[in-house]
Amino acid sequence: MRNACKSSSLALRRSLPRWSAVFVMVLLAAACTVGPDYRAPEPPLPDRLGPAPQQAAAAEAVSTDEALVLEQLAWWDEFDDPVLSDLIARGVRGNLDLEIAAARVAEARAVRRAQGGRLLPTVSAAASGGRQKASANGPGPLAELAEAGLASLENDLFTVGFDAAWELDLFGRVGRAREAAQARLEGVEELQRGVLLLVASEIAGAYVELRGAELRLELAERNLG
What we know:
Blueprint: H1 2-31, H2 53-73, H3 82-93, H4 96-117, E1 122-133, H5 142-147, E2 154-165, H6 173-224
Antiparallel strand pairs: 1-2
C-alpha cells in the first residue's frame, strides 16, 4: 500500500512540471499578443444620403436614353390625355427593368466602340529631358576645352519618341467581332423598346380600365338619380 502511494506521489510530482511549463507557455503567448483589442470603426456619415457621382452620371445617361426612346415610341400621345402621358412618364422613370435594359444598351455601345477601335491605328509618344554635368577633373580633353572656353561641362539632353501600330485585319476577325458587337447592340436596343412598350401598355391599360369604371359609375349614378 505504501509502495502504491509512493509511486502515485512520484507520478504526480513528475507531471506537475509538465503542466507548469504548459501554463507558462500559455501566459507568454498571451503576453505577446500584438495590437489592442478590435473595436468596430464608426465611419463618418453625411447629413443626407445620395447616389455616388459615378452612379448619378450613369442614372442621368440612362434617363436621357429612356427619354429618347419615349420620343420614338410615344403612341399614347395620340390620345391627347396629359394625365395618361404623365403617368407613363413617371412609371418609366421609376421602373427598374427599364434601368437594367438601358444599362445593357450602354454596355453594348461601349463594347461596339472598343471593337471598332481595334481597326484604328494605335499611336503613342514619349519625351524626356535632362541636364548632364561632367567633372572638371575627369579624364579626356573636355576639361581643357572647357577651361579654354571651347566647350561646356554642362549639357542639356532631350529625347523624343513616336510609335505607331496598326493591326491588319487580314482574315476579317476584327471586322467580324465589330459586326457581332453591332448586332448585339441592335438586339439589346430592341429589348429595351420591348420593355418600354410593355410598361407603357400596362399603365395605359390600367388607366383605361379606371376611366371606364369612372364612366360606368357616373352612368349608374345618373340612372339612380
